[in-house]
Every structure is written in structure tokens, then in C-alpha cells.
Amino acid sequence: EVQLQASGGGLVQTGGSLRLSCAASGFTFDDYNIGWVRQAPGKASEGVSCISSSDGGIYYGDSVKGRITISSDNAKNTMYLQMNSLKPEDTAIYYCVADIPCSRLFMGTVGEFWGRGTQVTVSS
Description:
Layout: E1 3-7, E2 10-13, E3 18-25, E4 34-39, E5 46-51, E6 58-60, E7 68-73, E8 78-83, E9 92-98, H1 102-105, E10 113-114, E11 118-123
Parallel strand pairs: 2-11
Antiparallel strand pairs: 1-3, 3-8, 4-5, 4-9, 5-6, 7-8, 9-10, 9-11
């Protein structure tokens, strides 16, 4: 059974940093593309970042490029999202997702697998 569990969210001030983690089980990162999608209150889902399983390519949404770094520890089957220079508009629930073409992730689609999200709140 595929499971994804995001953690590490919290309340930070503008300009602060957070590191989200996603513990995965039931598959390895070689099997599927993995990434993060976020949803802010009243807004459509937005793709944040994606790692391609086929070539290791890493992709970021335009709104977070330069401020966010995605990484994975295959030995721990854990994915991370280091978020720096946070802005109030980054406030959202962040979901880790798997088994989705990166192009579709950036359309805000969560894909075949996703887990309980973690809340990130950035105060102004």
C-alpha cells in the first residue's frame, strides 16, 4: 500500500524558513515521479516542485523558483522541501504526491497518490 505523510509545517514570519518532509512507503522513488502540490484557502491547487524518476530532473513552479529546494533521500524513502524567504502568499496546505507526470503536477493535479498535507502559515 502506497502511503505518503507530510510533516514540518508551521507558523513563520515573512522571510522565514521551513523544511517540509514527506515519508513514503509502499514504493521507492525510482518507481514514480514525486513532488509537492499546495492549496491555499479559496484557491486552486498549485504545483510547487517535482522530481522526475526517469532522469532525476527537478522542476519548480514560477512562484517559488529561487526560494524553494526539493530533495530526496532514497535510502530513507523521504522527500524534503526546503522553503526560504517565505511570503504570506506561500500560506497553504502542502501535499506530497507521487505517480504523476511533472507537467500535470504543475497544473495542480495531485496524481495517483497523495497523503495528508501539512499546513504552512506565513504571517506578514
